[in-house]
Design brief:
It is globular and about 60 Å long. It is mainly α and 459 residues long. It has 18 helices and no strands. It has one domain. It starts with 10 loop residues before the first helix and ends with a helix. The N terminus is likely disordered.
Length: 459
């Protein structure tokens, strides 16, 4: 007989919201800060190896975005459903969701492995004719795709820990993977002849990356098997069952689509910037590395918020849902104001970390200052979007993402590029965030009226 979950013993049901959010979010925020630091240090190493590597990494970013997007799509679906079923006391259904999530992870892995073998070089050849960019970039992407299993299973297994309130373990998994990556980067990029390790350049950065991801995935599996007592991990639960797969995808596909849209946006912006210079494209790639130091902690907090909101929706506690969302918005806004100040006051310091020359600084400093005006606006939109995924309306997130990145950002960037001034292109990010916030507020009002308000009236 399957044991049900006693919700009264779960901290997501009883702990004060502020304490709960911080309790669940700090490990995620810490691990994502380490991950963001890795992203920055990784780029510092490769730009020290060759300044032109910034362009290759920028062109590779859409594929990396897709990798994370597909893994996150499965993970978000598993996270929201698992939290909800546990909130309702349905442990067996939650365990079957976890098993089917692992099955979907294997499908994602195979798809990207095929791209790594056959699609990496053509992808770079259609974007650049610079030999270093094509050779180094395609080697980097190929390795990351062929050995993608590490990041896919890491993400999904970590979401299972988050869904049951065990976010502290994700600090160990992501932190260990990122620190290992940072240590191995110079070893494989520059080589260690005394140990028989050759200089590998960008390919070496990829090798360090996948080793870190695989170690993190193994740790996440260990913590789930040994410490996650709310989920039963049985081989029989790995058997695909369409009803569970459909529910996971109904929530997770919008998240995957959002990341795919982000990849399309990055690809489009890269193409627009290539019309100005390879340096402009490199600046865009470095911007994305730096901004992750502020955005990734917010995404970590959002992951905690999703679990709390989904659990309390299943537990029928609307007041805990609204208080959690208010706290998330306030913290996100504070983080993004700090990011705006950093980009406004010290853009030259940030860019000089990446071996920037005069041309890179001339393009990069206005870019960082201009784009950062969008940070406080993005904070509120990101925080409120947690409610879309947690309450089973992931499609709303897709609508917002499409509005921001495809309907507004790319057309605005293209039109501004026609002025012939690259500095004007960066304002498209600010314009897009204004539209995104407006769409988010409209959709949140709708979901509040349909799902949260009825629970309040029934209290």
């Amino acid at each position: 007989m399957t044991k049900t979950v006693n919700t009264s013993e779960n901290k997501m049901a009883v702990m004060p919201e502020g304490k709960l959010l911080l309790n669940m979010a700090w490990p995620l925020i810490s691990s994502m800060l380490v991950q963001a630091l890795y992203n920055i240090i990784d780029s510092i190493y490769v730009t020290q190896y060759n300044p032109d590597a910034a362009t290759a990494l920028s062109l590779a970013f859409p594929i990396q975005n897709l990798q994370i997007g597909f893994a996150t799509g499965v993970g978000v679906g598993v996270n929201a459903l698992l939290s909800r079923f546990l909130g309702e006391g349905q442990r067996e259904r939650g365990s079957r969701v976890a098993g089917n999530g692992l099955f979907l992870s294997a499908i994602v892995t195979v798809l990207f492995m095929l791209f790594g073998f056959f699609g990496a070089r053509p992808f770079f050849e259609m974007q650049s004719d610079v030999p270093f960019t094509v050779d180094g970039g395609s080697a980097y992407v190929s390795i990351c795709c062929i050995w993608i299993a590490g990041i896919v299973f890491e993400v999904v297994l970590e979401r299972m820990l988050q869904a049951t309130g065990r976010t502290v373990y994700t600090l160990y998994t992501q932190g260990t993977g990122a620190v290992l990556n940072i240590i191995l980067d110079p070893v494989f990029i520059f080589g260690v002849p005394a140990l028989g390790i050759p200089e590998m350049g960008l390919a070496g950065a990829a090798v360090a990356t996948v080793i870190g991801q695989w170690v993190a995935a193994i740790l996440a599996l260990f913590f789930n098997l040994k410490c996650n007592k709310d989920v039963d991990f049985r081989l029989s639960y790995l058997a695909p069952k369409w009803s569970y797969i459909r529910e996971i995808l109904s929530i997770g596909v919008p998240s995957a689509i959002m990341m795919a849209i982000g990849a399309a946006m990055n690809f489009g912006i890269n193409r627009i910037l290539q019309g100005f210079s390879e340096v402009a494209t490199g600046v865009f790639g470095i911007y994305y590395k730096i901004q992750s130091f502020f955005f990734m902690p917010i995404f970590g907090m959002n992951n905690a918020c999703i679990s709390i909101v989904a659990f309390n929706y299943g537990y029928r506690k609307p007041s805990r849902i609204t208080r959690t969302l208010k706290l998330t918005c306030g913290i996100a806004l504070g983080v993004m104001i700090a990011g705006w100040l950093t980009f406004q006051l010290a853009p030259d310091f940030l860019l000089n970390l990446f071996n920037a020359n005069e041309e890179f600084l001339a393009i990069g400093m206005p870019a960082l200052r201009t784009i950062s005006w969008s940070f406080p606006i993005a904070a509120v939109a990101i925080a409120l979007s947690a409610s879309f995924q947690a309450l089973g309306n992931g499609f709303y997130s897709t609508v917002v993402s499409v509005s921001r990145q495809l309907v507004v950002l790319l057309p605005a960037a293209y039109l501004l590029s026609l002025t012939g001034v690259v500095d004007n292109v960066w304002w498209s990010f600010v314009i897009a965030e204004f539209i995104s916030l407006a769409a988010t507020l409209i959709l949140f009002a709708r979901i509040y009226r349909k799902k949260i308000k009825p629970l309040k009236e029934a209290e």
